[in-house]
Structures are given as structure tokens and as C-alpha cells.
Recover the amino acids of this structure.
């Protein structure tokens, strides 16, 4: 029995006791009642007893005291702490983005991707573009106009946030530029990053880690033709199988190239510059959409999603290319649909269903604000009614983009 059930049961017992005591006390004559013009009549005493009982019943079924929003949040938080599941902490962050326990929830909220058969199968190897195709691919970054991008004032897990570092001004590579005659090959990237490669595209880089190509992409940065190969390092168990636990993310590394005098040269490489994903894998990406925030800065939008307690969310992790290196600078939420949740299907119908488009707000800032233009409906909990979804603005705080209050 919960504490609320116990309290409720004790309240009923107390009410019954008061009612019986009232009947007994008013039903038995007491000294001094003979001189009272009302209480000296048994019928009057019975009538008063009935009024007392009616008052108790009315108090029980029509309480005047309501539970505050803070108390509701506290009850919800205690239930999350009791389950101690990452998806429940994420649910708390969605429900109370400005709540009392946001910082604690951020430490334990891990974005979720539902497990699929592909997780347990062999890692797919993304073959590099052929040289002819690469020349065609080196065009201006696509404009994000019809993209379904996304996540809530999305919160990055602590394991990821710890790895986020601001761009270093005038950063210099720790190695000499190296020439490659043709377009960079994934085998070359694995060799450069780990000192070993394999024709299968998968190499065991530690006793508990399997590394392989995640995806690669050509892009323009200013006037430069660039190419990046991202490598994911998945956790494995003693038998060599992918560890697909809910909170098991993957480490992301990269090797970046720039075309110089007809040849590709390595300009940077990072083994583990961030950690994303869950269930032992990274999001399934073929080519990322690119958001150009300045002439020499591009953001790759890494699409990800999860569902918890019937609420589906989609978002974009932000991978910034600046000063020839990569930085994970937060995430942006723009799609939420809780139509499958109990909250939307109960009598209150607190439904949320909107999606947004991501764009840059023109300014002279080095890192301009990012606008999420939403279409659809949100739910205003203060007014307890559905409203049109309001646009979000994300600002750069020196390390990452975060939702503007």
C-alpha cells in the first residue's frame, strides 16, 4: 500500500469515527441541556447530528484544497527516481523543462533508439564515393528548407556533455599533412586513426571496442573542398558481440581531408571527440543535412529519435566543423508527438503534436542564433488547454547551443 492509499484510508476511518461520535454524543442527554431551548429536544439533536454527517460527506467528496503544480511535479519526480530508468528521466525533462530537478535529470537522461535487428547484425560498411562522383558532390551545402529536423530544448547526456569542448582558435594539427592520390578511402581513415585496418571495414581497437565506418561525406567549407569520414566505436562483450544495453552509446571519431593541388590532404583527426546513440549503435545516417552558419563554419545535423511512455521525439545533434576540427555543440528539438501516450488519451487530452524547421537567424554573431519554426499544437499546462506551438530560439553559450528562455 502506498503512503497516499494509507493516508486516504485513515481519512475515511477518521470521518466514520467523527460521525459515530456525533450521533452518540448528541443522542444521549447531558446535564445542562434541559435549559437549552434547542438541545433539550431529541429531534433537534438528531437534526444537528445529521447536519454534521452531511458536512463530513460534503468535505470528503468536494475537497476545497487542490494539489499544486509543484506537488504534482514532486510526485512525478519521486516516481522517476523509483524506477531509475533513463527514459523516465528524459520524460521528466520533456514535461518539466524548467523544473526543480532538471540538473539531476540531465545527468541520467540518455536518448533512446529502439533496438532493431540491424543492431545485432554485422556493421554495414559505407563505401566511399568514387572520384568522379566526389567531384559532383563538392557543391554548396544544401539549404535546410524542407527538413524535418529536431529535440526538446534537448538535453545532452553527461557522458556526451563532458566531451564537448569549445572551438580552439588557431588550432594546429599535431601531425604533418599527408598526401593521398585519390579520394580518401575508409581503409586509409582507419589506418590513420588506429594504425591498423581490415578489408572487412571493422577492426577491434580495444578488448571491449569494435570500430568501423559510420558514414562519410563531401562538403564545401568556404572555398575549400572537404571530405570527412566518421568512425564509430561500439562497445562489445567478452564474446565479441555488440553490447546493446539501453544506455550503451558509441564513441565517434573522424578523419578530415581537404583538396589541395589536386590531392587530398589530412587536415585533422580525432579518435573520440564525442559520444552519442544508445543500444550499442549510432543513429542510421547516410548523408547529413548541413546548416551553414558562416562562410567558414558548417554544422552537420545528425538526425536522431526516441520514444518513451508513448511520446515520440526527434531532434538534430549538432556537429560543428570549425578550424579544421569537429565539435559536438548540443542538440535541437523540433518534433514531438505524444498521441500514443496516456496523457493524450485520458480524459484530459493533453496532446502535443508539432514539428519544426531549422534555420539560421541572420546576424553579425560568430555563432548566430538558430530558429526552429514550429507547426502544430502544444499544450499549455498553466492554462490547461491546447495552443499553437510556439517557435524556439537556440543561442550559443560559448560551448553549445541551448534553448533561449
Amino acid at each position: 500500500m502506498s503512503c497516499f492509499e494509507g493516508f486516504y484510508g485513515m481519512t475515511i476511518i477518521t470521518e466514520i469515527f467523527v460521525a459515530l461520535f456525533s450521533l452518540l454524543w448528541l443522542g444521549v442527554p447531558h446535564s445542562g441541556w434541559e435549559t437549552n431551548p434547542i438541545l433539550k429536544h431529541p429531534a433537534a439533536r438528531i437534526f444537528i447530528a445529521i447536519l454534521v454527517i452531511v458536512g463530513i460527506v460534503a468535505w470528503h467528496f468536494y475537497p476545497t484544497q487542490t494539489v499544486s503544480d509543484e506537488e504534482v511535479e514532486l510526485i512525478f519526480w519521486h516516481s522517476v527516481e523509483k524506477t531509475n530508468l533513463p527514459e523516465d528521466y528524459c520524460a521528466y525533462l520533456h514535461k518539466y523543462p524548467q523544473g526543480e530537478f532538471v540538473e539531476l535529470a540531465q545527468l541520467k537522461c540518455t536518448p533512446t533508439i529502439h533496438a532493431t535487428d540491424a543492431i545485432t547484425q554485422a556493421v554495414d560498411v559505407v563505401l566511399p564515393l568514387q572520384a568522379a562522383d566526389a567531384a559532383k558532390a563538392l557543391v554548396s551545402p544544401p539549404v535546410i528548407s524542407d527538413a524535418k529536423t529536431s529535440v526538446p530544448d534537448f538535453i545532452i547526456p553527461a557522458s556526451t556533455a563532458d566531451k564537448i569542448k569549445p572551438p580552439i582558435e588557431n588550432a594546429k594539427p599535431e601531425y604533418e599533412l599527408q598526401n593521398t592520390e585519390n579520394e580518401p578511402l575508409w581503409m586509409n581513415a582507419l589506418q590513420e586513426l588506429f594504425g591498423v585496418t581490415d578489408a572487412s571495414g571493422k577492426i577491434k581497437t580495444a578488448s571491449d571496442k569494435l570500430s568501423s565506418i559510420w558514414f562519410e561525406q563531401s562538403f564545401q567549407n568556404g572555398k575549400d573542398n572537404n571530405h570527412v569520414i566518421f568512425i564509430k566505436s561500439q562497445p562489445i562483450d567478452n564474446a565479441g558481440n555488440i553490447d546493446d544495453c539501453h544506455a550503451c552509446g558509441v564513441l565517434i571519431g573522424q578523419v578530415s581531408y581537404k583538396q589541395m593541388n589536386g590531392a587530398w590532404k589530412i587536415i585533422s583527426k580525432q579518435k573520440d571527440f564525442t559520444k552519442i546513440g544508445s543500444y550499442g549503435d549510432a543513429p542510421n545516417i547516410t548523408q547529413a543535412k548541413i546548416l551553414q552558419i558562416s562562410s567558414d563554419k558548417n554544422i552537420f545535423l545528425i538526425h536522431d529519435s526516441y520514444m518513451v511512455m508513448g511520446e515520440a521525439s526527434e531532434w538534430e545533434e549538432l556537429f560543428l566543423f570549425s578550424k579544421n576540427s569537429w565539435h559536438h555543440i548540443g542538440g535541437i528539438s523540433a518534433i514531438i508527438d505524444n498521441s500514443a501516450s496516456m496523457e493524450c488519451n485520458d480524459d484530459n487530452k493533453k496532446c502535443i503534436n508539432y514539428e519544426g524547421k531549422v534555420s539560421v537567424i541572420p546576424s553579425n554573431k560568430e555563432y548566430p542564433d538558430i530558429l526552429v519554426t514550429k507547426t502544430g499544437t502544444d499544450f499549455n499546462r498553466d492554462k490547461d488547454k491546447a495552443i499553437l506551438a510556439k517557435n524556439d530560439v537556440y543561442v550559443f553559450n560559448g560551448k553549445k547551443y541551448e534553448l533561449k528562455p
